[in-house]
Specification:
Layout: E1 31-33, E2 39-42, E3 48-50, H1 56-63, E4 66-67, H2 68-73, E5 81-88, E6 95-96, E7 105-106, E8 113-114, E9 117-124, E10 128-129, H3 136-148, H4 156-164, E11 168-195, E12 202-224, H5 231-235, E13 246-247, H6 250-253, E14 257-258, H7 265-288, E15 292-321, E16 324-331, E17 337-339, H8 345-368
Bound molecules: zinc ion (ZN) (2 copies).
Length: 369
């Protein structure tokens, strides 16, 4: 392994790529996107620079979804591709773009030192971005509040986390899929009826064979296109308000990191179909009706499948506590949080013991009173 910690990393973007760096007009320092605004600010001199909004026509052109099947069959035109230089984490596999000025880096997802330069990657260009709304201070407050509410956490945790809560602002890659689905199903409808009376009254179910059809339009079904965070984890950060989507503009990324996608379009579509299937099964149950439902067969056809590649904002803090890493993530648009936490087994044990004593005491009282 080569040690690159003392040397500047290669430029964040390779040939043809866009540099996510914007020098301040007043002092030349790097501007940084200001969460919640359509502007970048200079942390050095305070200068503010507006991000000019696109006109309606170019907005909708930039955000127009690609046809899924042609993208799966052949590479997209060169205009939809970008070449980026990323570092990949040897521990969790995240591929994160780093600023050229960064001299040493730690994986923002698992706090592992990152030294592997995997070179340039050809990627589908992001089309849309949900800009950050929450500032780092907001994320820190959310973290402090979450810590306070934790039961059975080790005593030292709060103190430790306060000292070490460095947050990274990351744009996480997503695929957003549109599709029209039409599903034929067969199954059974269960209806309750009762036999007997009084104490012998029993509930029984009468099953009737049914079949039918449901259809649904899926609009921007989201699939995280990376594996750096567990999927159930990021689903807990939903919903996202897609109305705030902006056409991709590197000025929104200035001062933040963008993670490259490591789940390709094909596998992403597969995950999307599984999520669609869950929702369609709920539709089928509603369509069957009755008190209980059985689904024997379900045959879905998809049409008008389209996709967009989007970047969604999260604040993440990876902290190591007693040699294990834990993560805390915040939806940087809505403030919804999800965290991993250590447990104090001594505290849990004491609580169980206390509960046992209370129950034991109660039994003692009722037995011998
Ligand atoms: Zn400045
Ligand atoms: Zn990592």
């Amino acid at each position: 392994m080569t040690d690159t910690a003392d040397q500047p990393l290669p430029p964040a973007n390779g040939a043809g790529g866009t540099e996510h760096r914007f020098p301040c007009a007043q002092c030349g320092a790097n501007l940084r996107y200001a969460p919640g605004q359509t502007a970048m600010t200079c942390s050095h001199c305070g200068h503010e620079q507006d991000i000019p909004g696109a006109c309606e026509e170019s907005r909708s052109a930039a955000l127009a979804a690609h046809d899924l099947h042609s993208a799966l069959a052949a590479p997209l035109p060169e205009a939809d591709i970008e070449e980026t230089r990323v570092l990949s984490c040897p521990n969790c596999g995240a591929q994160v773009e780093f600023d050229a000025a960064v001299h040493s880096a730690e994986c923002p997802f698992c706090a592992t030192p990152v030294v592997t330069d995997t070179g340039a990657h050809r990627h589908i260009k992001p089309q849309g971005v949900l800009p950050f709304r929450l500032r780092e201070e907001d994320a820190k407050q959310a973290f402090a509040k979450w810590l306070k509410g934790l039961w059975f956490a080790p005593n030292g945790l709060a103190r430790f986390a306060r000292r070490d809560n460095r947050f990274s602002g990351i744009y996480v890659p997503y695929w957003a899929f549109d599709a029209d689905t039409d599903s034929r199903y067969s199954g059974e409808r269960g209806t309750y009826y009762y036999t007997g009376s009084g104490r012998n009254r029993r509930r029984r179910i009468r099953w009737t064979r049914v079949s039918g059809r449901v259809s649904r339009r899926f609009d921007q079904l989201l699939v995280m296109a990376a594996q750096s965070l567990p999927r159930r984890y990021v689903r807990a950060l939903e919903p996202w308000h897609m109305a705030e989507l902006e056409p991709y503009d590197p000025q929104f990324i200035a001062g933040f990191r963008a993670e490259g996608y490591t789940v390709d379009l094909g596998p992403g579509w597969k995950i999307a179909q599984e999520r669609m299937d869950e929702i369609i099964r709920q539709d089928v149950r509603r369509s069957i009706g009755g008190d209980q439902q059985r689904i024997h067969s379900l045959d879905t056809t998809h049409a008008n499948e389209r996709f967009r590649h989007l970047l969604l904002p999260i604040w993440v803090a990876a902290y190591r506590y007693r040699d294990r890493s834990f993560r805390f993530v915040v939806n940087a648009q809505t403030g919804r949080v999800r965290g991993e936490r250590p447990w104090s087994w001594i505290k849990v044990g004491l609580a169980v013991l206390a509960a046992a004593l209370v129950i034991g005491g109660f039994i003692y009282l009722t037995e011998f009173a």
